[in-house]
Design a protein that fits this description.
Layout lengths: L2 E7 L6 H14 L4 E4 L2 E3 L3 E3 L5 E3 H9 L11 E5 L4 E6 L2 E7 H7 L4 H12 L4 E5 L18 H7 L3 E6 L5 H11 L2 H4 L2 E9 L7 H11 L3 E6 L24 E6 L4 E2 L5 H4 L4 E6 L2 H4 L4 E4 L1 E2 L2 H11 L1 H10 L3 E5 L1 H5 L3 E4 L7 E4 L6 E18 L13 E14 L7 E5 L8 E3 L1 E3 L2 E4 L8 H15 L11 H19 L2 H10 L2
Parallel strand pairs: 1-9, 1-10, 2-9, 3-6, 10-11, 11-12, 13-15, 13-16, 16-18, 18-26, 19-21
Antiparallel strand pairs: 4-5, 6-7, 7-8, 14-17, 19-20, 21-22, 21-23, 23-24, 25-26
Pathway: Cofactor biosynthesis; adenosylcobalamin biosynthesis
Keywords: Cobalamin biosynthesis, Glutamine amidotransferase
Family: Belongs to the CobB/CobQ family. CobQ subfamily.
Length: 505
């Protein structure tokens, strides 16, 4: 069985996912077979594996760092928030159902066999497993239910723990000391190293504090990782992308930040293009007059559409569409663009509401989720984005609704399920004038797709976009993973971490 090491944090967003990813890359570069694991992940962004199963994107990113294909075994339980008190519970890549927080806490011990089976399967195939915790191990109100999240998982896997604190938000010494003090004695004994994360400045200034921290806890500090300015995919709504105040570029793109936004990683490729701004907008006064408005995926299409209707964003988007602004919806954002949304089974809000009426189609929410990876191409594209016609694409579908175009309305793409035995093509999405929509997540990832979109908008504006070229997104991510590993090699005590890994608990 594989050796294991676990990354836990003093809080959410302390940097666990990134440090776990960096260790996966380092171990992979050093010649080990390594895989990531997170028993329970709560995230807005998810991914569909080759087998058509759903998992969290953080473990996908970590698998890419490890040089292996993502497997749902790396994240056997995924919680996707549907509202402030409940989530859709996905087990082994398939929907178990919607549960309130209280219902899930009462149920979760029944999932221990699923977690153990997934972990043991990975451990039998690899040399090292890098495990990521969730939140903090010192949430004393939740500790009784921690059967496989933080210390519960460390015990199941017999994994030594590295505890990570976030100095960027202040109070890192209190974070690390306070967390260890709130652990039970047997749990505290499992913490073999402390990591100070997101530091900016002269590290020697920290030396007195590190000396005192090691004396008080009896645990060595095995690294002080810098604040890293790298671009990797964000897992959830704690992303800093939403807080950026972008100045409008020569080509200005606005993503509507709906309350239940999901899979916003779809838009990351545009961030790499010079002269292009990508802004997240949640108020009418911030929308202004962008060149393209992007409607993202959502965990509740109907409620997020009503939110836009109530705060005036829908009316503003309709006005922009009437003036010829390009509108592009993905998944839930695509569904909003149609004429009606019906929910006879109560999958979302129930009942029927009118859509934005920009695409001639109707959507009915079904009880079964569509989960599939697809290949395809844009087909018959008209309007500003006509340059996309014939361009290849790839991605995946995750949705509960079925959308039907009306009166022979034009589709946007032709796609095929990558697992389909006959490779049959089907029409996907819809278009009307300068309004476009598709169910395919990742539709912009190929370099040529993003380039053709910017070229089309530039032609409409009469500006030269020849210097605004994108990059192949997968290749770009690989360079970022190597930068991550190089920085961690310089700032972590890797010999000590390897000793911790070998000694275990």
């Amino acid at each position: 069985m594989a050796k294991a090491i676990m990354i836990q944090g003093t809080m959410s967003n302390a940097g666990k996912s990134l440090l776990a990813a960096g260790l996966c890359r380092i171990f992979h570069q050093d010649g080990y077979r390594v895989a990531p694991f997170k028993a329970q992940n709560m995230a807005l962004n998810s991914f569909i594996t080759r087998e058509g199963l759903e998992m969290g994107r953080a473990q996908v990113m970590q698998a890419e760092c490890a040089g292996i294909a993502p497997s749902v075994r790396m994240n056997p339980i995924l919680l996707k928030p549907t509202n402030d008190t409940g989530s859709q519970v996905i087990v082994n890549g398939e929907v178990l159902g919607n549960m309130s927080a209280r219902e899930y806490f009462a149920y979760k011990k029944k999932l221990i066999p699923d977690v153990k089976k997934a972990y043991d399967s990975l451990a039998s195939e690899n040399d090292i497993i890098v495990i990521e915790g969730a939140g903090s191990p010192a949430e004393i109100n939740l500790k009784d239910a921690d059967c496989f999240v933080n210390m519960g998982m460390a015990k199941l896997a017999k994994a030594p723990v590295l505890l990570v604190g976030d100095i960027d938000r202040g109070g890192v010494f209190a974070q690390l000391l306070g967390t260890t003090e709130l652990l039970e004695p047997d749990e505290r004994a499992m913490v073999k190293g402390l990591v100070i994360n997101k530091f900016r400045g002269d590290k020697t200034i920290l030396d007195p504090g590190i000396t005192m921290l090691e004396k008080l806890t009896g645990i060595p500090v095995v690294g002080c990782a810098p604040y890293l300015y790298i671009e990797v995919e964000d897992e959830d709504s704690l992303t800093e992308r939403f807080e950026r105040k972008e100045t409008a570029g020569l080509i200005d793109l606005a993503v509507i930040r709906i309350p239940r936004i999901s899979n916003f990683t779809d838009f990351n490729p545009f961030e790499k293009m010079p002269g292009v701004s990508l802004r997240y907008v949640e108020h009418v006064h911030d929308l202004k007059h962008p060149d393209m408005i992007l409607l993202p995926g959502t965990k509740n299409t109907m409620e997020d559409l009503l939110w836009m209707r109530q705060n005036g964003l829908e009316a503003a988007i309709l006005k922009e569409a009437a003036e010829g602004t390009v509108i592009f919806g993905i998944c839930g954002g695509f569904q909003m663009l149609g004429e009606t949304l019906s929910d006879p089974l109560g999958v979302e809000a129930g009942g029927t509401i009118r859509g934005m009426g920009l695409l001639p189609m109707n959507t009915v929410f079904a009880g079964e989720k569509t989960r599939t990876r697809v290949d395809g191409r844009f087909h018959g594209v008209q309007g500003v984005l006509s340059g996309l016609d014939g361009v290849e694409l790839e991605g995946y579908e995750i949705h509960m609704g079925v959308s039907t175009r009306k009166d022979n309305a034009a589709s946007l793409t032709q796609i095929t399920d990558t697992n389909s035995p006959d490779g049959a093509w089907k029409a996907d999405g819809a278009q009307s004038k300068n309004v476009y929509g598709s169910y395919v997540h990742g539709i912009f990832d190929k370099e040529q797709v993003a380039d053709r979109i910017i070229q089309g908008i530039g032609k409409k504006k009469g500006i030269d976009t020849s210097g605004m070229t994108g990059v192949d997104y997968q290749t770009f991510k690989e360079t970022q993973y190597d930068i991550l590993a190089a920085e961690l090699r310089k700032n972590l005590d890797l010999p000590k971490i390897y000793n911790i890994l070998q000694e275990g608990i």
